[in-house]
Amino acid sequence: MPDVTSNLAMTHLVPLAAQEVDENKVTPGVLGFIVFAVMALAVWGLMKSMNRHMGKVDFKEKAGAGAEPVAATDSAKASDRS
Question: Which UniProt keywords are given for this protein, alphabetically ordered (predicted)?
Fold first, then answer.
């Protein structure tokens, strides 16, 4: 039943909307501005969050208990080849 009432409403409302729209003055309107503003705020929030998370990243590798220097590993491989 809901499908029938929505079709009936659309058939009555579409001609009304067609009469009010001027093809030379079509603009996004208030709804377009609100959607754009919400998207801009979301991008700003995501960028702020990304900067905060990137600030926590440590790009220098810490020397751990089992870590060997890279140069020692490479020299050992070179001596194995000889």
Answer: Membrane, Transmembrane, Transmembrane helix
Q: How far is CA 51 from the centre of its chain?
A: 14
Question: H helices of 21-69, where?
Answer: 29-56
DSSP code of residue 24:
G
What is the distance of C-alpha 28 from the center of its chain? 23
Please say whether the dihedral angle defined by the alpha carbons of residues 48, 49, 52 and 58, taken in this order, is positive or negative: negative
Q: How far does Cα 13 stand from its chain's mean position? A: 36
Tokens 């499908």 sit on residue:
3
